[in-house]
Design brief:
The chain is 65% helix and 8% strand. It has 147 residues and is mainly alpha-helical. The chain has a 3-stranded antiparallel β-sheet. Helix 1 runs antiparallel to helix 5 and helix 2 crosses helix 5.
Length: 147
């Protein structure tokens, strides 16, 4: 658990939303720090992974699979396109574009995936099985607030 510093508990806000944002930022920063040697952020790794799993998905299909809006997806794809980790090609009709991993993207995803495993392990050790199961259940319940 070399990545986790024992600096809790922090005083919560009375605002549930603010507490969620703070926790989300902390977890994202944690994963980003662990992934730093790969040159990817957790958002970029997630995008590469979804592209890998959906193979030639359109932007709309990928946004739906990732549960994010197309604007956010386009913004997140730009650095990956600029780094030649993904390739965007015309789709089946003039209104669609398909996203594919390049060979460099596959290599970056593989490197990031190994580091992601370290981050996962550290978080699991930090929270413990029961807290992690409860957290996942609560997060799924909260995500269901917006279909």
């Amino acid at each position: 658990m070399k990545h986790v510093c024992q600096a809790y508990p922090k005083t919560p806000s009375p605002c549930i939303c603010l507490n969620m944002k703070r926790a989300s930022r902390a977890v994202t920063s944690f994963y980003d720090e662990v992934l730093k040697p790969s040159g990817l952020t957790i958002a970029q790794l997630a995008l590469l992974r979804h592209v890998e799993l959906t193979d030639k998905a359109t932007i709309s299909e990928l946004a739906k699979a990732m549960r994010i809006d197309r604007t956010t997806l386009n913004r997140n794809m730009k650095p990956l396109t600029d780094s030649a980790l993904i390739k965007i090609s015309p789709g089946k009709d003039s209104r669609t574009r398909e996203i594919m991993l390049t060979d460099a993207g596959k290599a970056a995803a593989a490197s990031g995936w190994k580091l992601w495993g370290e981050a996962q392990k550290a978080i699991k050790e930090y929270l413990g099985d029961n807290d992690l199961a409860n957290l996942n259940q609560l997060l799924a319940k909260l995500e269901a607030l917006v279909p």
